[in-house]
Amino acid sequence: MSKNGNFTTEAEDKLIEDAFRDVLDGYLRSNHRKKVEIIERAFKFAKEAHKGIRRRSGEPYILHPIAVAKIASQEIGLGSTSICAALLHDVVEDTDYTVEDIEQNFGKKIAQLVEGLTKISGGIFGDKASAQAENFRKLLLTMSEDIRVVLIKMADRLHNMRTLGSMAPNKQYKIAGETLYIYAPLAHRLGLFQIKTELEDLSFKYEHPDAYHNISNKIEASEGKRTQIYDNFAAPVLARLDGMGLRYTAKARVKSVYSIWNKMETKHIPFEEVYDLYAARIVFECDDPALEKGICWQIYSAITDIYRLHPDRTRDWISNPKANGYQALHLTVMGPDGNWIEVQIRSRRMDEIAEKGFAAHWKYKVGEGDEESELNAWLHTIKDILDDPEPNALDFLDTLKLNLFASEIVVFTPKGELLTLPMNSTVLDVAFNLHTQMGCRCIAGKVNHRLVPLSHKLNSGDQVEVLTSQSQTPKPEWIDFLATAKGKTRLRSSLRKLQQPAVNAGRAIFEKFLKQNDIADDNVAITKVMGLFKASSREEFYYLLGNQEIVLNEYVVKTLRKQRSVTKRFIDKLLWRNPNASGDAGVAQNAASKRVSINTKETYVLKCDENGEGNFHLSDCCKPIPGDDVLGFINDDGEVVVHSLDCPKAAALKASFGSRILSTRWEVGDARFIATIRIEGIDRQGILHELISLISTHLSLDIRDLDIHADKEVFQCDLSVLVSDVAGVNSLCSKVRKISGVQKVTRL
Predict the structure, then answer these.
(1) What does the alpha-carbon distance between residue 448 and residue 465 come to, in Å, rounded to a whole number?
(2) How far apart are CA 153 and CA 192, in angstroms?
(3) Facing residues of 1 across strands?
(4) Which ranges of 95-147 would DSSP assign to H, the alpha helix?
(5) Residues with catalytic function
(6) Rounded-to-integer distance, Cα 519 and Cα 571, Å
């Protein structure tokens, strides 16, 4: 066999056989019924189908499906049907075999799973569609019929992330961003805690390699200190638990690299001030689920007899499990060294469900339990979103992501029924959660028997009654009052139905207006007129027009005729189109896919000329400067817009328009950029003068904006200056911190 050709070497054949044997051995050690024959058949079928194909890393392709099958089996806990589907998951997409071939050889169930896992093209969002958004939609539609589809997809994504190093930088950004934006929250929602943590850490590693290695090194360096703190804390607790005659395991756990970085960023604190870095977990053995709750509280009582409890940090997830099935009792106590330490108390059953999510429920399944009802309720919500999808890919993903909420509250109906909702949910969320018509007719609510507006935010434990009126109709501004995906989806759907007559009328008015003034009805006209009236979508423009909130006059005609030739020439040039060709409404939307002037596979160099004019635009949302970790995005006008890697907008773009993402490198010479820092401190006479003197005289920086206000003894100042790079900002922050009275300096 050729070593460099398309055939595998003997060593590779052995590697493949060993990898498959590893999967099979793990399966044989599990509690699942032993269906070895069909797994071996699936392996042989996949191996033959992928024969001669290699991954980007150079290894035989079949090693990927084998690795996915291993994760699905040994890390998620799935059985033979899922192992077969994992082995076959790329066969239909990458080879000449069809879903019918899979069904003929392996039966309907495995074929359905493979079909759900097969990517598709085109879809519900039109020419501007994001293939990723459509893939998520298909995946979730299949998931609502069989949860195993998304569990295998998680295994597939995890292995792709583990082998991401062999991909091009722009692909790394796309895949890491998509993972952090959708897959990690989805893993959390399904209770796959270990997988969620690893997905977050791997995404972070590729997006911010320096920060990742910096935090990893600090965790490693502080290991001795952490071990000492845990040992000092654990000794009296373990002695007490031994005296109670419990069978248990106890261990220290450290926060993940990503969660530490997240806390440092959101709270603007250094690594050393992440106070819940220290945590302990106690997992006890209990054969009777009815006794678990009592044992958890006994352990809680034993710990609080020894250490002082943090009053606001107790979480009872046993009486009210999280929507992803998570159960545990959390408490935070002051350790003997003066460090706050979080303790998680779980039974072995709770621990498996916490780590493996809903897959572990099957092992403990006794009838239709509460957790499964929660999952079914959530799947129904997902189906709601899919039945009425957003016309825009980004909106669809945002709505979906909203449903993968991490922070939850629990509220009660007047009859005592329990509802699990995301943090910041309102009375209106409850109304839409109960029924679409109730949401549309909602006028107010009663929370704990007190009258409140429909925008009132709820707290855990509130009892909520929804008040309705037949004369009430849904309002567009209600979207700001909603925190649930179900609420937003149902409100938008109701508004569309109400606004449709006005939208139709507006479309007819616009078409008639163009015809009367002999202006072509194409993308150029609609785009220009939407800009004139600041409408965010065609539907909004047509609605405003049909509702007589705007009028089309002579100024609109002049604007369209004046701009027409310039705009049309620009678009023709952009698309390499014959200027004499007839207008095509779909072409401008497809500009990004036809543009070839920028090679997305190469690193795009960000440059400025001698006048400071760049070959890029800085995004308004995150305002990056040289030295920041950034990516480029090719917008609809063919321009490169630069975003910080951790910008929320960039995360959405990576998840939705991966093919337009660029890997970038700064080479901007002496160009200068605006950076804003926030200074907080104790007010005193002359502090502002000292601050301005330092910046303009000693550091020779140009001040572009200064906004300062004081409240009693405390002041806050937002200061914008021109700098050349991140090092300049860091130097400025360092020097400002030395001014007497300044407590905190952060870049905005």
Answers:
(1) 8
(2) 12
(3) none
(4) 99-106, 108-117, 131-143
(5) 93-94
(6) 17
Query: Residue 108 has which token pair?
Result: 């309907």
Beta strands per DSSP E along 285-351:
308-309, 315-316, 329-334, 340-347
What's the CATH architecture for 404-482?
Roll (3.10)
Is the Cβ–Cβ distance between 715 and 709 less than 8 Å? yes
Task: Identify which of 162, 131, 169 has the alpha carbon closest to the alpha carbon of residue 630.
Answer: 169
pLDDT digits (tens, 9 = 90+) for 415-429: 877 787 888 899 999
pLDDT digits (tens, 9 = 90+) for 267-303: 777 887 776 667 899 999 998 888 999 999 999 999 9
As its CATH architecture, domain 215-371 has 2-Layer Sandwich (3.30)
For domain 10-209, give the CATH number.
1.10.3210.10
The third-level CATH classification (topology) of the domain covering 673-747 is Alpha-Beta Plaits (3.30.70)
Give CATH 3.30.70.260 domain extents, the chain.
Answer: 673-747
* The predicted structure's pLDDT at residue 551: 82
Q: How far is the C-alpha of 560 from the C-alpha of 12, rounded, in Å?
A: 65
Q: What is the pTM for the complete model shown?
A: 0.66
Q: Quick: pLDDT tens for 634-692.
A: 887 778 888 888 787 777 777 767 778 888 888 887 788 888 888 888 877 888 788 87
Note the pLDDT of residue 567: 42
Report the distance separating Cα 85 and Cα 108, nearest Å: 11
- Answer whether 426's CB lies under 8 Å from 480's CB: no
Residue 279's φ and ψ, nearest 5 degrees, are -150, 150
Measured distance CA(341)–CA(213) in Å, rounded: 25
Which pLDDT score is estimated for 587? 31
